[in-house]
Amino acid sequence: MPGDKLLSKWHGRLKVKTTAEQQEAKRKEREKKLKLYNAGTKAAFKKRENGEYDEEGLKITGEILAVNPDFYTLWNFRKEIFVNFLQTRGTDEVQKIMENELYFLESCLKVNPKSYGTWHHRTFIMENMPKPDWDRELQLCNTFLDYDERNFHCWDYRRFVVMMAEVSLDDELGFTTQKITTNFSNYSSWHYRSKLLPMLHPDPTQPAWVQEDVILKGKKKQQISCIHASRKTKRITVLLTRPIMVGRGNSLILSIHGKSVAGQWKTPTGSSSFSVLWIKDLTESIPEEKEVSVSVTLIPDIDKDTQFSQGLQIDADQEEAWVMADFKSGSRFSNELSAATSSTLETELESIKELHGVEPDNKWVLLTMFSLMMAIDRTHSMYKLEIRECIDQLIKVDLKREAYYRDTKSKFILQSILETQDKNAREMSLKDEGLTALYHTEWMLLLTSIDLSNNALSTVKSLSNLRCLKCLCLDNNHLKDLDGLQHCHQLCELSVKINDLNSAEDLYILENNKCLVKINVYGNPLCRYKDHTTKIKKNIPSLLSIDDNKCTSAPS
Amino acid sequence: MGTPVKDVTIPDSALRSLILQKHCDYIASYGTKKDDYEYCITEYLRMSGMYWGLTVMDMMGQLDRMNKDEVIQFIQQCQHECGGIGASVGHDPHLLYTLSAVQILTLYDATDTINVDKVVDYVKNLQQDDGSFYGDKWGEVDTRFSFCAVACLALLKRLDAIDIEHAVEFVLTCMNFDGGFGCRPGSESHSGQIYCCVGMLAIVGQLHHINADLLGWWLCERQLPSGGLNGRPEKLPDVCYSWWVLASLKIIGKIHWIDKAKLTKFILACQDDETGGFADRPGDMVDPFHTLFGIAGLSLLGEDKIKPVNPVFCMPEEVIRGNGIQLELL
């Protein structure tokens, strides 16, 4: 099981060469220890079985727990003894015994400061003691954090003490400042500050949970961003800003001409999961030759009042129609900053650039510059070149994480292109962009044609979001499979020249793409088999052209 | 300048290839030395120890060397009236060991040999109003136990027994600014806890709550110049983190963000060619815990002499699929 750092015994034991004599001596010593240990364990279990909750029980279990603090059953026995004392003995006496327990625990923690059982037992004692001294506990935390400033058990225990003793958050912030002054690289202290600061300085304009959700977790406000309706495919597609699971906590209601339409909502891949895209296939056709009004309402189960709707009109002569919500430039992919915050960040950026001048190859300086530029320049237009340079430099100085930087660069490029492109565009070129990953494909929902050639893609799974896609060019990538494209039901033309598709079977995933008439697989390893076109045609009967050659008749 | 990086150096003499048979022999003989000092004083975690040993044997294709009947009988003896299972005979029930027992029984396709309804009741009764889980009746709360509860019930196909929405809500209150998770609300991120929380969310199909880019970056920053992974910033690398970190990266679809060749080299260097088994770091003493996570890590890295491992349950993928469990990873 995870977190079995209850295995303190099995960590950091250096293997040392020993002589046969030393080994024998150690064996004998261990044999003796084991005898005592086993006898003690037996005696403790016996006492518990007999219901003897007394000082002797504390003594016997204490001896074992002092050497083996992870023996949880013995801690439980001790707890039972204390529960018994609380019921049968006077307050002063119990107070005294529990004070002794705290001393005992302190001695255990000195030997093994990372034992879950010991810390939890201390919590139990403090919660049950007649007169707990919380100040003393805070002092104990200080001592243990002086000894090891990263001991997360102690930090957690400290947070428990702070809560019980109602220590002021200001004092706690002061404590982290002092810790950081001694060692600037104290991740535990920085973490604690990330929790304290929002509590100490709440944004008066926002409720606390919004700040946590929006600022720390980057969550967006729920909204219907787009509705697309097609007469031809009898299909309605809805794009939301936050993923939901229809039926679990949320209802999505589709109405045509004010009448609610039955039928199941599906995700693009048909999986039962949370998604921002929801699709409904209509059982009946959308009436031709007259205007049709479509509306979609999202109703969260917990708060029915926060429901909202979006509607659109399909004109008489239209095959398809859509409505794309207006969004402020730069608001889709980053959080809005106040003017004051922006100016602070700009000042920061100036100083970090100076540092970069002195230490051009420092990874952390580069990363900070990158984050600052991304935060300030929300449309990714102002620092376009600098951001790219920054990432390229990071790849050079931190080659181990090259894949992370390349994916990050891909994300940045896709964001900046999506920011500048017309929201109603149906075509997009992402040729020669060095993309290693695809991000934000839900915002490509309306595209009918996309050119992704000359990139470094190894998967196209997320293209399943492109519900209107007809023409796709993936030439010159690293694709070993086409998983994802089986969900692009409108796809007519696919070019996947010069990829890593190994056999004709890699294409069979497209057998149900009924509109697919043209495919080009030139330059893939699969072309080494002469019969590849025959095989492909046989399995994807809708095809009329393979590798620019007409396939006239369907083979038997 | 900054703080010097804590790391280890891999000695030139370190092993570079997998000594699979020796690991099998090490595990097979481990349980036979019942009078051994180390064996005795680790009795408080015996059930997990058996899960580590049996799982790694299964992944190496030699589970049949272990005594199935003895194991099942032992587990039966460890189940209490309340339904929970203890680490050993006479030891108290706890979620940690209840999960280990259920994992072992799943490996053996023998969950029907214990009282499953009671296990389900035990797990269900440990859930609190805020969605969290106690580890046992004494009230320790930890996101590890959220994972144990959900994993255990998923293997028993009884996830419906608990309040999943609340369980998810609690786990999310333990999420931090770095995208990671700690033991309780307010606790610092730690790779072991991250694995538990990410795994928990994967089992209940709610991985969309995770900021995969942010968390993935924090996780891939765990790789040190030696190639090994640490569990938190400024800590030494350790083979068990090659599992917690790597499995988490796999679940959120970012396993390619670390340097696989370097990590493989680090894990292989932690083998002991005298005794078999893996240690936490090159040159340390081996144990079954690090042996499982060394082997499981190598499996995720694509070593074909080992069976593919399921990144959420840390059990052979074939066992999980055979059990009808299909998880959607990012």
TrEMBL record, chain A:
GO MF, one annotated term: Rab geranylgeranyltransferase activity
Domain Rab geranylgeranyltransferase alpha subunit insert-domain span(s) in chain numbering: 224-289
Gene Ontology cellular component terms for the protein in this record: Rab-protein geranylgeranyltransferase complex
Gene Ontology biological process terms in this record: prenylation
Chemical reaction(s) catalysed: geranylgeranyl diphosphate + L-cysteinyl-[protein] = S-geranylgeranyl-L-cysteinyl-[protein] + diphosphate
E.C. designation(s): 2.5.1.60
Family: Belongs to the protein prenyltransferase subunit alpha family.
Entry function: Catalyzes the transfer of a geranylgeranyl moiety from geranylgeranyl diphosphate to both cysteines of Rab proteins with the C-terminal sequence -XXCC, -XCXC and -CCXX, such as RAB1A, RAB3A, RAB5A and RAB7A. Catalyzes the transfer of a geranyl-geranyl moiety from geranyl-geranyl pyrophosphate to cysteines occuring in specific C-terminal amino acid sequences.
Official protein name in the record: Geranylgeranyl transferase type-2 subunit alpha
Source species: Mytilus edulis
TrEMBL record, chain B:
Keyword Transferase: yes
Domain of life: Eukaryota
Pfam family, one: Prenyltrans
Cofactor binding annotation: Binds 1 zinc ion per subunit.
Cofactor(s) needed by this chain: Zn(2+)
Catalytic EC class: transferase
Reactions listed under catalytic activity: geranylgeranyl diphosphate + L-cysteinyl-[protein] = S-geranylgeranyl-L-cysteinyl-[protein] + diphosphate
This protein's record includes keyword Phosphoprotein: yes
Annotated GO MF terms: metal ion binding; Rab geranylgeranyltransferase activity
Domain Prenyltransferase alpha-alpha toroid: 20-315
Function: Catalyzes the transfer of a geranylgeranyl moiety from geranylgeranyl diphosphate to both cysteines of Rab proteins with the C-terminal sequence -XXCC, -XCXC and -CCXX, such as RAB1A, RAB3A, RAB5A and RAB7A.
Subunit structure: Heterotrimer composed of RABGGTA, RABGGTB and CHM; within this trimer, RABGGTA and RABGGTB form the catalytic component B, while CHM (component A) mediates peptide substrate binding. The Rab GGTase dimer (RGGT) interacts with CHM (component A) prior to Rab protein binding; the association is stabilized by geranylgeranyl pyrophosphate (GGpp). The CHM:RGGT:Rab complex is destabilized by GGpp. Interaction of RABGGTB with prenylated PTP4A2 precludes its association with RABGGTA and inhibits enzyme activity. Interacts with CHODL.
Protein family (similarity comment): Belongs to the protein prenyltransferase subunit beta family.
The protein's name: Geranylgeranyl transferase type-2 subunit beta
